[in-house]
Amino acid sequence: MLSFLRLTSFSLLLLILPSSLVVAREIVFPPVVPLQANNGRGQYRSSVNDEKQSFLDLDKFAGLTTFSNLPWVHCLSDEKDIEGYDIAFVGAPFDTATTGRPGTRYGPTGIRLGSRRIGAPMDWSPYTHKNEFLQWARIVDCGDVPMTFLDNTVALKQLETAHKVISGRPANATEISTVPRVITLGGDHTTTLVALRSTFDHWGPVSVIHFDSHIDTWDPKVLGGGLSDYAGLNHGTFLHIAHEEGLILNSSAHAGIRAPAVNKKHDWKNDRRCGFEIITARDIDKVGVSGVIEKLKARVGDTNVYISVDIDVLDPAYAPGTGTAEVGGWTTRELLSILDGLEGLKVVGADVVEVAPIYDNAGETTVLAAAEVAHSLMGLMVETPVKPLKENKKED
Ligand SMILES: [Mn+2]
């Protein structure tokens, strides 16, 4: 009876109201233009002084997920003529050389998800009032490199080929630099060795600024090499191997170190031999953020720099989603302030690694931090273009 009455009153209402109000509000779906498409007036569309731009064009949750909603380019395709770029993000989904919890093969996907709210049209920094997306560099996401999870040697070879192809293409703004720079989204830390081989080809040996709770210069004899040569290449030894291969300069530095050594003396001695100076996690309490920045800048001087950020440099409170978490680390704000403070350094390559989203939380603390770190690294590259060795030689 009650439902009958309800029905009747609803029918009455329909009779009283004009028909235009009864019809559900018409929803129009305008064609959504991919973010940052070329609008004919420069590389990117800007969100200011652009009356024609529909708010829907700024949608950060549409389409496929790329890093910071950047355009996807098939950098690894066989085709010669693809869209040019100056800075390329690429994912290295690899986690079979870890000594702790695995899961970083999902890192690139996680970091991209963490970056969904970052995007060119609305990226004016409250600190610098700049928008790094809207400057000279064309920045793209190349997607993930195919890396087998069954054989580390093959997987790292696959990544090496990918780096060669991506950095081997002509840049977009050739008047500024002819070689595109790569920011890798890891992946376990072993992937950095491959990136360093690639930067060596274009820029020669580099100073590494290595943000990490672990030194990662372990002698393979100490970590894994006792089992086999294959086991000796892992995420704790790759910097030792990079030194042996002559890829890095003796002006390198670790920042945020707090994990213990395996033995009393050899590890620290070997670390210095590999070219590193150590800034511990607790040093920040003595010298502050600006002190850490000063130390790092003084250490690398005018050399070309590769910045590698192992997300476990952060305290597990700020980055639980990682394989070998160590308590007593830096906050996200401290790390971002230090990174932004490195402006002016000649950054030729960079990465954010060891992000394992499976251990992250519902608030996505780790992937949000990792995305912002990658965003900062991108800013450093935009601020300071670096010419490759071959161009410098031409000018001499
Ligand atoms: Mn590491």
Task: Explain what this protein looks like in three dimensions.
With 396 residues, the chain is an alpha/beta fold. The chain has a single domain, classed as Arginase, Chain A, CATH 3.40.800. Helices cover 33% and strands 12% of the residues. It contains 12 helices and 8 strands. An 8-stranded parallel β-sheet has the order 2-1-3-8-7-4-5-6, with helices on both faces. Helix 8 links the parallel strand 5 and strand 6. Helix 4 runs parallel beside helix 5, helix 9 packs parallel to helix 10 and helix 10 packs parallel to helix 11. The protein is globular. The site of manganese (II) ion (MN) has 7 residues, from loops.
Main features:
12 helices; globular; Agmatinase; single chain; binds manganese (II) ion; Ureohydrolase_dom_sf; Arginase, Chain A
Q: Give the total of domains.
A: 1
* Helix count, DSSP H or I runs of 4 or more residues: 12
CATH architecture: 3-Layer(aba) Sandwich
Helix content: 25-40%
The coarse silhouette is: globular
- Work out the strand percent: 5-15%
Kindly state the mean pLDDT as a whole number? 89
List the helices and strands in order.
HHEHEHEHEHHEHEHEHEHH
Distance between the termini: 95 Å
Identify the CATH homologous superfamily: Ureohydrolase domain
Strand order of the largest sheet: 2-1-3-8-7-4-5-6
The first-level CATH class is given as: Alpha Beta
Number of strands: 8
What value does the Rg take, in angstroms?
Answer: 24 Å
Residue runs with pLDDT of under 50 for 5 or more positions: 31-51
The kinds of small molecule bound in this structure are: manganese (II) ion
Overall structural class, as computed from helix and strand content, comes to: alpha/beta
